[in-house]
Amino acid sequence: MTRVVGKRAARRAELFDQLVGLFLDEGFAHLTLDDVAARLRCSKSTLYTLAESKDDLVRAATVHFFRRAADEVEEALARVDSGAGDRVTAYLEAVGDQLAPASARFMEDLARMPGARGVYEQNTAIAAERVRTLIAEGVGAGEFRSVSAEFVADVVASTMVRIQQRDVARATGFDDAQAYRELAALVTRGIAR
């Protein structure tokens, strides 16, 4: 029985990985469940084992994407054993790297669909809190000038929301990955001793 459950879980994870890849490449608003099933070479009933509707499927795929991305970002941060500035930079650049495969169409669809947008907003809030913690650690260690970590994190969160809502892309032409790299440079240089 355990082997069957393990195979089901593996197949489910594989389907979500394929689904995320499809959505990142092409977006999702224009796709029907029939389109998705055909592209993933599965039945619609298989998709219904993942979620009850297209909106639920998109939300679940978005959760899957951000859960995997969060793990990758934390792994990238764990590899940095140098100073606080390098850790903030590594964190924000890793966020950008995780968003790099996302097409403009995916990001636009994400901004328009409430369930998926909510997942992005929640992950943005978590990332901003992580940045606040990293900055506070750097201030405490004397590596950053004395700044309010809460204020800097609030500015970072505001920028992250603007990135998420496509405002930065419209204003600068930057994709999300570029925007996060620029944000990392701005923050670390702005609070450096």
TrEMBL record:
InterPro entries: Homeodomain-like_sf, HTH-type_TetR-like_transc_reg, HTH_TetR, Tet_transcr_reg_TetR-rel_C_sf. Pfam families: TetR_N. This is DNA-binding transcriptional regulator, AcrR family. Keywords: DNA-binding, Transcription, Transcription regulation. The keyword DNA-binding applies. It comes from the Bacteria. Signal peptide: none annotated. One of its GO terms (molecular function) is DNA-binding transcription factor activity. The keyword DNA-binding applies.
